[in-house]
Design a protein that fits this description.
Layout: E1 2-5, H1 15-19, E2 25-28, E3 31-34, H2 44-48, E4 54-57
Antiparallel strand pairs: 1-4, 2-3
């Protein structure tokens, strides 16, 4: 799972940044953005978002 942040819905409270155990949420000019190199897909950011601006979506793996 990976978080997708809707920056139009985001209220920029920073809860996703504070609660992320991996420290992968980064503040940008237009809101917050996860760094997928470090994201574990735990969903804490989405669970803590007070305006439901973060959706956890499935990552599809390529078959070899």
């Amino acid at each position: 799972m990976r978080p997708i942040i809707n920056n139009e819905k985001c209220c920029r409270c920073g809860w996703c940044y504070l609660y992320c155990p991996s420290g992968c949420v980064v503040e940008k000019d237009n809101g917050f953005e996860p760094n997928f190199d470090y994201c574990k897909g735990c969903g804490l950011c989405a669970a803590e978002c007070p305006v439901d601006a973060i959706e956890m979506v499935s990552e599809r793996r390529k078959k070899k």
